[in-house]
Specification:
This protein is an alpha/beta fold. The protein is globular. The two termini are 25 Å apart.
């Protein structure tokens, strides 16, 4: 069950982290807590050791949560607690991990969002362009940022956010509010 004081303590722990490792670990803990409050979602792996690449979270989606029914049974989650927006190379690396596993849906949680701003006429470049081109392959990745996370007060707010972000992909509004 989602507990707001616990969630707020995890947000505070992210803010209090000092080293890059602490920042990454606390952010992954926050993301894990939040996503496992959805019905039928379990963490199957966190930072699994692999020879050639890194995964942050691997979720099992039992398809019992209505908002996650369009998602694969296995969902990769990338967690980036960077001080700036995540650029195209890092986002493309995540898409490549999905491709190698024949996955079509993923979640990218980036504290400061991703680069590119086609919505406001400021260009199609950056990670936003990767989102658009991936859609042509049937790959759908929702983006969640720290502002989104700060606004979540209960699991229904998370469900609403996921639904809006997922639907927003199809109208080229990945940050549809």
């Amino acid at each position: 069950m989602f507990d707001l004081p616990t969630y707020q303590a995890l947000l505070a722990a992210v803010d209090a982290a000092v080293t890059p490792n602490q920042k990454g670990d606390r952010f992954e803990e926050l993301c894990e807590y939040l996503l496992t409050k959805l019905t039928g979602v379990n963490i199957e792996a966190r930072d699994p050791l692999m020879a050639s690449e890194e995964l942050d979270l691997v979720l099992w989606n039992a398809q019992t949560e209505e908002v996650l029914k369009p998602f694969d049974n296995t969902i990769l989650v990338e967690c980036k607690n960077w001080s700036s927006a995540v650029g195209a190379p890092a986002f493309d690396s995540f898409i490549s991990k999905m491709r190698r596993r024949s996955l079509k849906t993923g979640i990218f949680i980036a504290a400061n969002g991703v680069t590119g701003d086609f919505l406001n006429g400021n260009g199609n470049d950056g990670a936003i362009d990767i989102i658009k081109s991936s859609l042509a392959e049937g790959i759908r990745v929702i983006i969640i940022n720290r502002t989104d996370m700060d606004a979540i007060a209960n699991v229904d707010a998370l469900r609403t956010l996921i639904k809006k972000r997922y639907c927003g992909l199809f109208i080229h509004r990945p940050f549809n509010n």
